[in-house]
């Protein structure tokens, strides 16, 4: 079953917290989403924590993960 989870991340450029919707099937993937505030591309990495909860880390696009 697919479920969308709302997560908040801080933009690595402007520091604003933005809300994103992620899909459990995206765990382990990374993708780019433009910041809703400054419109710069944020690299989002979707991970699962030890309890199976989705977590998202945000990086600027030039930062190596
Ligand atoms: Zn921003």
Q: Quickly count the domains.
A: 1
Rounded Rg: 12 Å
**Strand segment tally:** 5
Distance between the ends:
29 Å
Structural class: mainly beta
Q: Compute the number of helices.
A: 0
Cα shape: globular
Summary tags:
two-stranded antiparallel ribbon, 5 strands, binds zinc ion, mainly beta, globular, single chain, 65 residues, three-stranded antiparallel β-sheet
Structure report:
The protein has one domain. With 65 residues, it is an all-beta fold. β3 (30-34) and β4 form a beta hairpin. The mean pLDDT is 90. The chain has no helices and 5 strands. The strands form 2 sheets. The chain has a 3-stranded antiparallel sheet, with no helix packed on it. A two-stranded antiparallel ribbon has the order 1-2. The structure holds zinc ion (ZN). Residues 11, 13-14, 16, 35, 37-38, 40 line the site of zinc ion.
Topology:
Layout: E1 4-10, E2 17-23, E3 30-34, E4 41-48, E5 54-60
Antiparallel strand pairs: 1-2, 3-4, 4-5
Structure summary:
Helices cover 0% and strands 52% of the residues. By secondary structure, it is mostly beta strands. The mean pLDDT is 90.
